[in-house]
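Support request, priority: normal
Reporter: lab tech (M.K.)
Component: structure prediction queue

Hi team, I submitted a job for Lysophospholipase L2 from Salmonella enterica yesterday, and the status page still shows it as pending. I've pasted the exact input below so you can check whether something in the sequence is tripping the parser. The sequence length should be 281 residues. Please let me know if I need to resubmit or if it's stuck on your end.
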Amino acid sequence: MFQQQNDWETRENAFAAFAMGPLTDFWRQREEAEFIGVGNIPVRFVRFRNDSNDRTIVICPGRIESYVKYAELAYDLFHLGFDIFIIDHRGQGRSGRMLSDPHRGHVDHFNDYVEDLAAFWQQEIEPGPWRKRYILAHSMGGAIATLFLQRHRVRCDAIALTAPMFGIVIRLPSFMVRHILDWAEGHQRIREDYAIGTGQWRALPFGMNALTHSRQRYQRNLRFYADEPQLRVGGPTWHWVREGILAGEQVLAGASDDTTPTLLIQAEEERVVDNRTHDRF
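Reply from support: The job had stalled in the queue. We restarted it manually and it finished. Here are the results:
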């Protein structure tokens, strides 16, 4: 454990060497697979297993993210003695898309994400040999995983949520947002188009990104998108925004039903999800 902590503290200064050496070697050991989710959408996932591990962690990424982004986290957790599973949610990563424009962040029903996770859990996690089962979920993945645990009584020993998407930062009064989204919902061409202010994926300079302070990791993620353009996902559709807001409201409404031990971590400089909803949760 002490050596692992030393690695964390010194890695930033030698990140390129770590990424090209130990991390690349570790990533080659992955097992990739898929299952068929709601509406016959293929859902991809990756796993790292060792017969001596008696604990497992399921990682649920955020919007637009793929499991390829989580190689470093998988590396660290695996070397702490956990089997690791990471799911690519429908509409992003290496999973199937719902629209002809693969850049549009879209889902028919937010609950489709939840039921995909339920099917994955039943297939891969429930029958496993582990003594402990955990979930680590980020942003949109936090809303998905929380709704999953509220709606499905499964054996999950604890969940850790980082910046869970229980609300979305929108610089308009909520009644106005609701009115606009309800109007867009009645026009299919608009409901499936990019929400205002968004569009196709494009590489932003590091200084303009709102997600990380790590220049090395940001540049590494851009290389993923350059090497594998099909990973790119742009802005959300109007319908996705509506579904995302409703999902956050459902999470808060079901909070009293949560029985799973939960750790919730906020980002102090958050600009995407609404931290006030974490306090309400």
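The first strand starts at residue 31 and ends at 36. Residues 2-269 form a domain with the Rossmann fold fold (CATH 3.40.50.1820). Let us know if anything else looks off. Ticket resolved.
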